[in-house]
Predict the structure.
Amino acid sequence: MNDLICLGAVSGSYGVRGEIRLKSFCAIPEEIESYSPLTNEDGSQSYTLTLTRAIKGGFTGHLGGVETKEQADAVKGLRLFAPRERLPSLPNDEYYYTDLVGLEVYDTGGALLGTVKSVQNHGASDLLELTGAELKGTVFLPFTLAAVPTVDLEQGRIIADPPEGLL
């Protein structure tokens, strides 16, 4: 399991005074501010975060060390992380996306289907992006209890019952 969990990303600058546009990945989006200071992906840089207002698609805010529009433009795409120990424990049927990436996916008969490349959410529900030698390209498996009855983080695997015709 990763020690850092991605909580949000800078999507650009906002205005001319160094504010940033921020997309939060938290279940309650505004709670990203409570995990400040946040770090970059490798943990080498730390940033304080102060949200200023909600806007369409996220928030605006101030990021420590970013004072000008040019600096805000320069950090576009920066993903912001917090250490796992600062995040709440999850119930048994909930997972951090980062814990699912890399898990092997097997069907109910024990055949390897592929590996989770990423977790996507385009509004309706979560989808597991699967890749593998036996798959013809990328497959998106609905991350529902019906399609994914078992997630075993200790064994590093997922048992899936894909909908008819998906594979």
Q: What stands out?
A: The domain at 97-160 is CATH 2.30.30.240 (SH3 type barrels.). The mean pLDDT is 91.
